[in-house]
């Protein structure tokens, strides 16, 4: 397993921790490492807990430097890997839990949207789809994913206006399920794991598939429609003008 993603499985719970030493940019390396970790969790028949080891940040999202480099092939590879990763999380047969203790920008927000239960620490952290604020149109797969979890008025605010939300507002919006004080995160995570263990796992998997089948179909259709090289090349000039925060991703 790559050192930027740490994997530990104890008693049927796979804790997958992102740590790239910076802000957990969703580079192709990070996405591939996460995919390998999810493979292990599926083989281990484990509940997934996804979190970050970086203080104040869950993930800074896709590597904006790749977009700014005006390299459609590399951009497409990264975005498609992220889309497919979110799609596979949607159908993980056991429960999935996300722990947000810092900012979650796309693609980090997309991963949290794909998880069953999202717990956040209370603080000056932000989550949302801010693409239009930096010069990118949100990908269709992400809009379909967000549509399935986010309240319509809040969805419009984040997709079309690039608005980001602090944790308490993010619960109202639908990005998160629970917000607790920083020092209560571990207890909340443990309580949630205990509740997930009590589920009938086969019934959980079937119910999840039934509920999410339309969203997953819409996400796959958006991937097939938008994430092709001709389409990506056509939009590459817009992505190359992305505004890099602080001069980087």
Comma- or semicolon-separated keywords:
six-stranded mixed sheet, 18% strand, 2-enoyl-CoA Hydratase, Chain A, domain 1, 249 residues, alpha/beta
Major β-sheet annotation = 6 strands, mixed
- CATH architecture designation: Alpha-Beta Complex
- Computed CA radius of gyration, to the nearest angstrom: 17 Å
| Coarse shape | globular
Instruction: Give the low-pLDDT segments.
Output: none
Strand segment count: 12
Helices and strands, in order, run as EEEHEEEHHEEHEEHHHEHEHHHH
Overall pLDDT:
93
Brief characterization of the structure:
With 249 residues, the chain is of the alpha/beta class.
Q: Would you write up a description of this structure?
A:
It is a single chain. By secondary structure, the chain is α/β, with parallel strands linked by helices. The protein has a single domain, classed as 2-enoyl-CoA Hydratase, Chain A, domain 1. Helices cover 50% and strands 18% of the residues. It has 12 helices and 12 strands. The strands form 4 sheets. A 6-stranded mixed beta sheet has the order 1-2-4-7-9-12, with helices on both faces. Strands 3-6 form a two-stranded parallel sheet. Helix 3 (72-90) packs antiparallel against helix 10 and helix 6 packs antiparallel against helix 10. The longest helix is centred in the C-terminal third of the chain and has 26 residues, at 201-226. The mean pLDDT is 93.
């Amino acid at each position: 397993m790559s050192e930027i993603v740490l994997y530990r499985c104890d008693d049927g719970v796979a804790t997958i921790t992102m740590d790239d030493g910076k802000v957990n940019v969703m580079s192709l390396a990070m996405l591939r490492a996460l995919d390998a970790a999810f493979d292990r969790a599926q083989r281990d028949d484990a509940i997934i807990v996804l979190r970050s080891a970086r203080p104040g940040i869950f993930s800074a999202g896709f590597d904006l430097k790749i977009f700014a480099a005006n390299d459609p092939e590399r951009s497409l590879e990264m975005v498609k890997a992220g889309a497919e990763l979110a799609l596979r999380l949607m159908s993980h047969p056991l429960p999935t839990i996300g722990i947000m203790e810092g900012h979650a920008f796309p693609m980090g927000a997309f991963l949290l949207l794909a998880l069953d239960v999202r717990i956040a620490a209370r603080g000056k952290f932000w989550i949302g789809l801010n693409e239009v604020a930096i010069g990118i149109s949100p990908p269709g797969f992400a809009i379909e994913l967000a549509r399935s979890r986010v309240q319509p008025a809040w969805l419009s605010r984040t997709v079309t206006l690039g608005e980001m939300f602090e944790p308490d507002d993010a619960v109202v919006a639908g990005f998160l399920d629970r917000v607790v004080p920083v020092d209560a995160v571990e207890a909340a995570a443990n309580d949630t794991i205990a509740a997930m263990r009590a589920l009938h796992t086969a019934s959980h998997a079937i119910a999840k598939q039934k509920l999410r089948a339309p969203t997953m179909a819409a996400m796959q259709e958006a991937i097939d429609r938008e994430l092709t090289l001709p389409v990506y090349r056509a939009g590459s000039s817009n992505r190359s003008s992305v505004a890099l925060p602080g001069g980087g991703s």
